[in-house]
Specification:
This is Integrase. It comes from Cinchona calisaya. The protein is built from 3 helices and 4 strands, in the order H-H-E-E-E-H-E. It is of the alpha+beta class and 99 residues long. The protein has a domain of 68 residues: 2-Layer Sandwich (Nucleotidyltransferase, domain 5). The model has no long low-confidence stretch (mean pLDDT 84).
Length: 99
């Protein structure tokens, strides 16, 4: 029976869809520039000036982007240090950060 239903063209076209479609994400809209940022890593690049990784920091309001080069292996401390030196020092970012 399982083989028949699995190979029956009519049965496959009439099969009910058991999955529900997911809703679109609607993140909150930032009210101030640099009040809400997202960060991500671009890894697996070829080495350039001794750096292998790019940390991407994006302001969700203005879409302004910082690209920060990192060496391998990077640590939480090294990422925090370059973030503080290159982004926070310039923009004095508020506490809402999403990944």
């Amino acid at each position: 029976m399982v083989h028949f239903v699995g190979s029956c063209d009519v049965c496959q076209r009439q099969k009910a869809n058991n999955t529900t479609s997911s809703k679109l994400l609607q993140p909150p809209i930032p009210t101030k520039v640099w009040s809400d940022i997202s960060m991500d890593f671009i890894d697996g690049l070829s080495m350039s000036y001794g750096k292998w990784v790019i940390l991407v920091v994006v302001d969700r309001s203005s879409k302004f982007i910082h690209f920060l080069a990192l060496s391998h292996p990077y640590t939480a401390l090294s990422v925090a240090q370059i973030f503080m030196d290159q982004v926070f020092k310039i923009h004095r970012i508020a506490p809402n950060h999403c990944q």
